[in-house]
Specification:
Blueprint lengths: L6 H4 E8 L3 E6 L4 E5 L2 E4 L2 H7 L4 E2 L1 H5 L4 E4 L2 E2 L2 E2 L4 H17 L7 E8 L5 H11 L5 E6 H9 L3 E8 L4 E7 L8 E4 L3 H15 L7 H11 L10 E6 L2 E6 L1 H8 L3 H14 L5 H5 L2 E4 L8 H8 L8 E3 L6 H12 L11 E3 L3
Parallel strand pairs: 1-9, 9-10, 11-16, 16-17
Antiparallel strand pairs: 1-2, 2-3, 4-5, 4-6, 7-8, 10-18, 11-12, 12-13, 14-15
Helix pairs in contact: 6-13, 7-8, 7-9
Length: about 350
Amino acid sequence: MPKAESASESNFIVGIDLGTSCSAVVTENGVKGVVESIVGWPQDIIGLKVLGNSIAIGDTALEFREFLEISYPLANGVIKQGVQRDLEAAEELIKHIISLAEVPEKKKICGIVGVPAKASQQSKQILLDLSKKHMNQVTLISEPFAIAYREERLNNSIIIDLGAGTLNFCTMKGRIPDENSQVSLEKAGNYVDNVLFDSLKRKFPDAQLTPNIVKKLKEKHGTILSGGGNIMVELRIHGKPQTLDITEEMISACSTFVPNMIEEIKKLIVSFDPDFQEEAMKNIMLAGGMSKIKGYDSVIKESLSDYGDAQIHRIDDPMYAVAEGALKIGTDIPVKYWSQLGETVATGK
């Protein structure tokens, strides 16, 4: 008789980052995938014919958004509550992410999913309930913890994850971070987008702006540094393209949560034993999509000068950092011990 396949051989490990703006997955066999966290359904039979499908996810939903019923199911990094359509969208997004993983046949899908540092118990339970329909075992961990594990900064370090929905902080002190070592703020990338949108509309009331246009402007030109030349962009006014200067508005919008960020970092430094604060200052990790904004590293370093010589490290490839950290945890630690990492549910399939 052929040898029976062991539990470890039948498990297929995936790391997942369900983000407010984008969601990513990486797998134990090297497959990687990313998708915009947006889901849409045709509003009528014409939309169904044009789309050629009953649902659109990611870039397709963005492309055809004018005739779709659109849902952004992840608000501030967690699944929206209270609206059935958003719950349906969240499940469709999870299903899509799993499809990107290219799971081999007869394998049990075991996923570690990153969530905001201070996600509520209710929001985590909703995520577990939806995820267990499509995975055999699911464990939730905090996003900054996943980043710390990826970067092997597990002791005397500070992780700052600048996302779209939340700004997450975590101190690593040689153990799995608890509630007291993590902070989450809701002033993050989407907040910057809203501030930038409002300020541009005030300055250029006739400019044809959409949230998507403003987001792309931030992603391309985002900075908090002055003296780098004017930011000149082409926008349409009454349908006609015009070149406009948005330098002041961009710097102001991208700077809007800096005081909050600095305040939290200072609190985290003081939380370390005095003997280890100097080392923690040299291990400040900047991650997340908003970490690409020019100047955050320098303003953090300057603001902490009274505390000592801070060293700010930008991680590479922030798009996949959480998912890769989650995968690394999942492959390093046997599945049977995952419940020690965070909230876990197993379907028993």
